[in-house]
User: Fold these one by one.
Assistant:
Number 1:
Amino acid sequence: MELLRKSGLKVTPQRLSVMNVIMEAGEHFKAEEVYRKLKKSEPSITLATVYNIFRSLTDNGIINSFEVDGTTWFESNLDAHANLFCEKCGTIEDVSLSENSNLLEQFSLDGRKVRSASLVLKGLCTKCSRNSR
Amino acid sequence: MELLRKSGLKVTPQRLSVMNVIMEAGEHFKAEEVYRKLKKSEPSITLATVYNIFRSLTDNGIINSFEVDGTTWFESNLDAHANLFCEKCGTIEDVSLSENSNLLEQFSLDGRKVRSASLVLKGLCTKCSRNSR
DNA sequence: CTAATTGCAAATTGTTTGCATATTC
DNA sequence: GAATATGCAAACAATTTGCAATTAG
C-alpha cells in the first residue's frame, strides 16, 4: 500500500492482489500465471488488467521485469542479480553475483548511459541439475 | 559458406544473403530489417524464410540472438559482451566487459548449469549520450 | 466530482507452422 | 532421388488498445 501511495498510484484491490502474489521472496511470474492465480479469489479480474498493473508497477520501479523467449517475467527482487531460466522445468531461479562482482560496474561504458541491466541465463536450475546427474 | 557446411546446413542463396548482412562487424539486426534489406536484391524472399534462416543459424551457434522489448535481435559477435539498446535512437551498441571481468564466471553457480548468458542494457548509446549533453 | 482504473472485446506485433513447390547434395 | 529449404497464407502467442462503466481520492 505504501509503495503504491508513494508512486501516486491508486490503491485498488486488484493491484493489492497482484502485489501480494509477486512480492513473495524469490518468486517469478508471468502475467498469465498471476492472472490464473487471481481468477479464483477475484473472478472479475482480466488478463488485460493484470498487464496494465504490471506496467504501472514496473514503470514506477516497484517491481522488475525481464524476458525469456518472448515472454515477460516479473519479480520483486530489485537487487542486481541474474535470472536463470531452467530449460528443463521452465522456472526461474535467482542467481546472485559473486561478492566481488558489481554487475553495474562491469562494463566499459565510455560516455554511454545505462539505465537498466538485465542478465538472463539459460541452463538447468539447482534442482534439475541435481536430478540429471 | 564454410560455416554453413560445417553445420550440415545446405548452402542456399537466401542463407548466404542473410549471412552477408549479419556478418558485418558490430551490426545488429531484427528479422524485419534484414527482410527489408534483402527484398531489394532478392525480391522473392519471405519474412518467414528470414525467420527460418535465423533459427537455423542460432541453433547451430553461427550467430547470436537476444531480445529487447519483445523483439529478437541477431548479431554475429559471439564473444561475451553486453548489448546496449539505445532508448533514443533505437539501435544496439556492443559494450565490452571490462578486462578483469569474465561474464561467465561472475555468478555463484553452486550446482547449477549455465548454457547461455544474455546481458542487455538499456540507456543511451555513445552518440545519443553525447548529443544529449 | 474528477481523474484514474477496470473489464471487455477487438486489434496489433512478432513469430511460427503446414503444405506444395523448388533446390541442394 | 532423398532430404531439406523456400514461399506463401494462415495460425498463434503475448501484449496492447479503445472505450464505456466503475471506483479511489
Note: The first strand of chain A starts at residue 28 and ends at 30.
Number 2:
Amino acid sequence: MSDLLERLRTRGWRLTAQRRVVAEVLEGDHVHLTADEVHARAAQRLPEISRATVYNTLGELVNLGEVIEVSTDHRAKRYDPNAHRPHHHLLCARCGAIRDVHPVGNPLADLPESERFGFSVSEVELTYRGICPDCTV
Amino acid sequence: MSDLLERLRTRGWRLTAQRRVVAEVLEGDHVHLTADEVHARAAQRLPEISRATVYNTLGELVNLGEVIEVSTDHRAKRYDPNAHRPHHHLLCARCGAIRDVHPVGNPLADLPESERFGFSVSEVELTYRGICPDCTV
DNA sequence: ATCCTACAATGGACGAAGTCCAAGTCAAGT
DNA sequence: ACTTGACTTGGACTTCGTCCATTGTAGGAT
Ligand SMILES: [Mn+2]
Ligand SMILES: [Mn+2]
Ligand SMILES: [Zn+2]
Ligand SMILES: [Zn+2]
C-alpha cells in the first residue's frame, strides 16, 4: 500500500477499491490531470467507477492537503498530487502543457503591508505563461 | 465618448448600442465582474441585450488588450478593464472579494533559465489568497 | 465467521458557465 | 436613401461540476 493510502487510513479513511484506483492514477511527478482524465484512467482499472466518486475523492484529497487544485484557465481544474513540495506552474498558452517550476524568491514577502488591505494573506499562486518547445515553430 | 470607445472606433469597431453599454459597465477601477454580472448591469440600460453579445464583446476586448481575463477559481472568469497598469490580485478565499495589488519585485526575473524548460515565457500571473476584513470574525 | 451500520458509491437529474449558429438587424460608407 | 457586411439575437448545445435518493460495503463488534 502506498504511503498516501497508509496516511489516509490512519485519518479514518475507509479504504475502498475506488479510492485506491484514484490514488494510483495520481501517482508520479508532473501529474496534472483533470477530473475527467482521472476518471478515464481509473475506469481502465475499475470500469464501473462513477464520475461522482472521482469528484468526491478528489475533493477529499484536496481538503486533506494531499492534492492541490490548479486552475489553468483552460477549462477544467487540474489535480496535482505534488502537494508536499511547494512549487508553481509554467504553462503553454497554446497546448495547455504544464510543468512544475521552482522560482527563487518569496512572492509573499514581496507584498507590502500597505498592499494587503486588511486581508490575512496565507497563500500565493504564481503562474507563468508562454509557449512550450513543442508549440514553437 | 470615452477614450476606450474612441480607441476602438479607430481600430474599425462598429459602434453599436450594445458595445457602448458593455464598455460603460466596465468603467472604473477595481472592477472585476463576471460575464453574467456585466450582462445584468448592461441589461439595466439596454434590456434586450443578449448574453451572447456580452460574451462576444468581452472576448473582443480581451483580444484587443483592453480588458484582462482573471480566473479566480471561484467558478466564472472575471473581466478587468484595468489593462493598462500591470498589477496582480489579492482574493478572499471565503467571499471571493478581489483587490488589485502591486507587489514589489519582478517574478519573471525570479524564474531561472534552468527552470524554463525551453518555453518562451512571456507572462506571469500572481494571485494572493487570504481572508478579507469583512470575512474575519 | 457472521452481522451490523455508518459511511461510501452509483447514476441520473440538475445547474452554471460558456459556445455556436441560422436568421434577422443595423452602422456607416457611398 | 441604399446597400452590405458586420453585428445581434435567442435558443440549442457542450462541458464541468454538484446533488441526491438509492444501493452497496468496509471494517468494527459479537
Ligand atoms: Mn504541479
Ligand atoms: Mn485587477
Ligand atoms: Zn505547447
Ligand atoms: Zn471575504
Note: DSSP finds four helices and six strands in chain B.
